[in-house]
Amino acid sequence: MAATPRFRNDAVAAPDADPHLDPARDSASADRKHPVDETLPPLRMFTSGLQHVAAMYAGVVAPPMILGPAVGLTPKETAFLMGASLFTAGLATLLQTLGFWRIGARLPFVNGVSFAGVTPMVAIGKDRGHDGIAVIFGAIIVAGLLGFLLAPYFCKLVRFFPPVVTGTVITLIGVSLLPVAFNWSQGGNATADDYGSTTNITMAAVTLVIVLALRKLLRGFLQQIAILLGLVVGTLIAIPVGITDFGAIKGADLVGFPTPFHFGAPQFEAAAIVSMCIVMLVCMTESTADMLALGRIVDRPADERTIEGGLRADTLGSAISPLFNGFMCSAFAQNIGLVAMTKVRSRFVVAAGGGILIVLGLVPVAASVIALVPLPVLGGAGIVLFGSVAASGIQTLATAALEKGENALIVAAAVGIGLIPIAAPDFYHAFPKDALVVLDSGISTGCVVAIVLNLAFNHLGRKPDPDPDPQEQSPAAAAPVAAH
Question: Is the pTM of this model over 0.90?
Fold first, then answer.
């Protein structure tokens, strides 16, 4: 009905116009692709995808680097796990971006090994060698299948994520990632002699300045890949400084396929399964928040169906990963920051990154080239990336009507509790280890607190108010959300 007056007004404005032109123009407008569904020229697709890989590479290989020695694997076996993690991260990313049936968010959504599972996996497999890995893989398979079955129900929680909740969670995602960038800037290994050295921190600062300068001075496509260019320039500068390690290239194999069940058939132990199922629920909560954040950034708000598809891709990717010796997959929030900063919203760019990850998993020598980027250089760029996520959260909070009701109190309490694992890492040291899976994640705790307080203050026992509640999903209240 709304279209009728529009066409009538057009006719009055241009009475002599050919009436057949208006439908054609409308058809062309209808056929115009959303930026998320656009494909870019091959060179731009590759370089932008490579930029996503560079931003996430350290996060993908870090969990197997930690887990391998903890369970008693040799350095060569640990390197095999790293390659397998890259390969399975690529598969999971393709599931998310391209999708099939009702699987995949079809957003520029990057998947990789979840850090949430590192602590329980170390506890499950410590000093058990191949048996420990087999038990971990068995638990991940069960947790992934359970999550896949729960996805259609879990996605309905989206109605509990109004701007006051999503803005809080997105801000916590960015703030929670910043310590990772600070750790990288110091060298990444707290036991190393040069950890926190002036050389490392200066190198991080130089990279940060380079990225900011490139964003300011460049235009168009080159501005969009400023992070990648900054990493390249920073790495070149780091070579004469002496913090670039070429050892990975010298010892890397040319080809290495992640042989299915390389460490033996999966084993199923009840305690391990329960632990990984808890981790899966944590990952699903964080992925839901990440999809809501990304949907706002790319101007395609994530509805229940999008979140259901995204969770199915997460959980299916997790269930498949152990087949190729990979681990539980979840969203990588650092890449959301990259999308926010570069404004490149095409999901096919991230799909190209997924393809690159698969190649890196199959060609270890190629993966070692990416590994040349020193962590201090990556840390300098990470400050911009992760800060961009926090800035997006603050922008979302600006639409949350914090002056109404107790919304400001909700944000204050959720952010305060969410910052505990960051500001005081040992705060929960006396709690059971299973509880630490949730409590050690500021994103998860902050998300739960924001949801509970939003329900308590804005829904339960609320009396009718002539002044519209900003949390109600009326057309007027939803308008600011849709604008993002």
Answer: no
